[in-house]
Specification:
2 copies of one chain form a homodimer. Helix content of chain A is about 55%, strand content about 15%. With about 110 residues, the first copy, chain A, is an alpha+beta fold. In chain A, helix 1 (about 5-15) packs across helix 4 (about 75-100) and helix 2 crosses helix 3 (about 40-50). Chain A binds a DNA duplex (30 and 30 nucleotides) through helix 2, helix 3 and strand 3.
DNA sequence: AGCCTAAGCCTAGACTGTCTAGGTATGAGT
DNA sequence: ACTCATACCTAGACAGTCTAGGCTTAGGCT
């Protein structure tokens, strides 16, 4: 489950250069050491969503008799990629703070002390 | 937006001791240094979901004339809390790998090289 | 020829989790 | 009387992901 972070990851991959949907899935799998093995039904809609939002642009190309729709970042997409990344960092840091926070006295959270 | 990580965070807070819904929201806000300021409409349903799943148990208590529903971890909930945390770590690590991955040659991702 | 797999694209609908936006009630302070 | 903080709740909207299909071409195998 990608839980809303898919867009940022797709944009991150595209930062390194244009890619088509199928290759993007492979790139995500390889970059994550196999952790992200996303179904096409997740990635294609995400790409369409990003294109509708103007963050990526697409064009058709041909390779080995197979047609590919190749996506690349727009200018706003490149900016969005950086934003998503820094949003991730602060989100991730906040989660870590919650996980790593020290125990607090039970009285602060309404625990039953009797 | 909590993007599916809310359960893990709630369980993490409850690991430190029982809490009621409203106090849990405050605890999440404080632990995250203000980053997580969750609406009640997110947290209460999450608690009910966790209770239905048997990960937390609740009971009513009274404090200052106000009734509180206090939640605490069950045994399976305590185990789930650890699982969620380690799931988070591997998820987070995978995301970091994607963000931090070096650029690869365009040919690997179907880029238009012409 | 027939079959299977990999490479490539797509989408409708189900599902799930979060948030919006409302509601109720008590106690304390002005 | 009024407002604010505390404390609970839920229906329905919304958004993102996944399931489960569909389509096509190329290439390998029998």
């Amino acid at each position: 489950m990608m839980r809303g972070h898919l867009d940022g990851l797709v944009l991150a991959v595209l930062t390194a250069g244009p890619a088509h949907g199928y290759g993007l899935i492979e790139a995500l799998r390889e970059r994550s050491d196999g952790f992200f093995d996303l179904p096409e039904g997740s990635v294609y809609p995400a790409l369409h969503r990003l294109e509708r939002a103007g963050l990526v642009a697409s064009g058709w190309s041909e390779a080995g008799g197979r047609r590919r729709r190749v996506y690349s970042l727009t200018t706003t997409g490149r900016r969005a990629a950086q934003e998503r990344q820094s949003e991730w960092r602060s989100f991730s840091a906040a989660v870590e703070r919650v996980f790593g926070a020290p125990s607090r006295p039970a009285s602060q959270t309404g625990a039953v002390t009797s």
